[in-house]
Amino acid sequence: MGFRSSAKSSWIQTSAMWQVYKNFRRLMPTAPWNAAKLLEERASTAPNSVGLHFEGTDFTWAEINAKVNQYARWFQSEGIGKGDVVTLLMDNRADYLFIVTALNRLRAIAAAINSSISGAGLTHAITLAKPKLIIVGSEHSDSIADIEESLKGVAKVVSQTDQAQTDQAGENTEKYPAMDDAVNEQATALPEGMTDPVIKEAAVYIYTSGTTGLPKAAIVTNMRWVAAGYLIGGAVTRATSDDVLYLTLPLYHVSGLTGSWGNVLVTGAKLILRRKFSASKFWPDVQEHGVTLVPYVGELCRYLVNQPERPEEKGHKVRMAYGNGLRPDVWGPFQERFKIEKICEMYGATEGNALIANFEGKPGMLGRQGKGQMLAKCDPVSGDLVRNSAGFCETISVGEKGLLLSVITKVVTYEGYLDKKASNKKVMSDVFVKDDKYFNTGDLLHLHEDKWLSFADRVGDTFRWKGENVSTGEVAELVNGFDGVEETNVYGVKVEGAEGRAGMASICTGDGFDVDVFATYVVKNLAAYQRPYFLRLQDGMAITATFKHQKKLYQEEGYDPAKVSDALYFLKKDKYVRIDAELFKQLKSGQLSP
Known about the structure:
The chain is an alpha/beta fold. It folds into 3 domains: 32-276, Rossmann fold; 348-458, Luciferase, Domain 3 (Luciferase, domain 3), CATH 2.30.38; 462-589, ANL, C-terminal domain (GMP Synthetase, Chain A, domain 3), CATH 3.30.300. Helix content is 30%, strand content 24%. It is built from 17 helices and 27 strands. A hairpin with an 8-residue loop joins strand 13 (342-347) and strand 14 (356-358). Helix 1 (10-27) packs antiparallel against helix 8 (222-236) and helix 8 packs across helix 9 (257-267). The longest helix is centred in the first third of the chain and has 18 residues, at 10-27. 49% of the residues are buried. Residues 1-16 have low confidence and may be disordered.
C-alpha cells in the first residue's frame, strides 16, 4: 500500500486514499485487521525493535506483546471476555496502550473516558457504556470517589498506577484494589480460549460531546481502528520503521489512540509517548528522540509559536506535522519558524465518515472536496437544511458556506454512537434524491475554487475550543445548578489569536449568587475546555419570538464593556475578575487569553 511522490495533484492523492479503503476491504480477511493481530505481526517480524518509549523506558515489540498478554490473562481472571466493556479513566502512559490492546485481543471493548471530565458528566459517560470493570489511574481516584454514590452497583473499580505517579496519586487511591502486581504475575504467552475477532465488532468507545447534551460514546470498530492506521500511516505520513512519532495528544481521542497507535502498528514506526503536552519540553524531546512525525491539534501549534525561542527548535528531524484545527494565521509562523518540511491538515469526526486531507500544504485549507461529500445550503445558526419546492436540498456555490454532509454506503459506513437515538439524529434521508442517506457533520465549510475547503464554524448549540466540541446545553445545565442562577445562555465567542471559540455564559442572577464561589464551582465541575471564561450578569434574557435564547446577538456583543452595560467578568486562572477597558484591551491584543 505504498504511495508515490507528493508531486501528484490533490485529487489524485484523495483518490489514492479512496483506493486504500477499497483495497483494505478486498484484502480481508487475510490482512491483519485487528490491533492485537497487528501487534502479533510486529512482535514476530521485528521482536527486538523498539516500538514504544515512555518516560525513560523503551519497549520492544516483543515486550509490548508480552505485556499485552499479561493484561489479557488478568482480564480473563476477572471474567472479562467477548463483548464486555471496560472503562478507562487515566492519563497517557504505556499501560494505557497495553490495556486497550489486551481488551482488543479478548474481543472486549475499551471505553476511553475523557479524563478531564468530572461530576455528572463523568457519571453519565461511565454508566452509558455499562462496563463490567472500571480502571482508574491513581491520579484520578478522587474523581471516582466524588461520584461513588452514583456508581453503586455499576461495576467493580480497580486502580492502576506507575512509578512516576506515586506523588500524583489521589488521596482515595487506596480505596480501590490495585491491579499492577496481579498483572505482573501473569504469564506472557497468549491467553487461552480466544477466538478470531470480527471486522464489524466494536473495539473502542471514544467519547464526543456531539452537537447537544451529555457526552456520547462513538463506536470505533476493528475496521475503523485499523483503517485509520493504514490511511494515516500510508496515505498521509507514508511512515516506515525508520520514523519516530511524538505523541503528546491524549489517548482517549482518535488522533491519539487509533490515529497514532494505529499508525505505528501498521507501519512499524517508533512511538514516543508523553503523559501530557508541554510547550517548554516539546523541542528538547523532539531533539532527544530524533522525532520525524508530529501529530497536532491547532492549539498545540499556537502554544509553540508563542514560546520564546530555544536552541532545540533548530536542526531537528521533523519532516511532517499533521492534524486538524491549524489556523491560517498560525500556519505560516509555525512552519517558517520551526522549518517544518510539510504540514498536512486533515478533517474528520470521531463518529463521522467524512475524511478530508490537505496533501498540498495549502495554508488554511482542509483539503479538497471528495467523493460523496456534499455542501448543502442551510440555516447558518440552526444548521437546518434548506429544501426546495421539490423537497430536496441544494448545494452551495464557490464563495459560500454550506453544511458538510457525507454519503453513507456499504463501503463508507457510519457506525454512530452507542445511543441509537443519538446516531439516528445524525443521519439525513432524502437529501438530494429519494432514499439517499447522508451523515450530518454539523460543520459549516467554505467552498473555494478547485473544490478547496476551509472550516467556517459549528452549527447549532455547539462550539469548538481547545480542540474539543463543547455542548452549550451541558454547560448551561451545570451552571443552572448553582445557587442564585435563574437562567443561563451559553455560547462561544472569538478570542484574539485563538482557534475556535471560548465559552461565555450570560446569566440571570438572583439572591445568593456569589461570583467568587461560582468560580470555584466552575473550576471543580467543568473540564478546562468547557468552562465559561467570560461571564455576563444581567436581570433579563433576550429571547426570540419562539422563546429561544438570542445566542447570535450575545455573540456579536461579546465581552466588550463599551458595547455591554451588564457586568462582565473574565476567568483568570481560578477567579473571575471584572472586565474594564484596560483588561479588554489586553484580551483584544492577545496579551491575555483563556
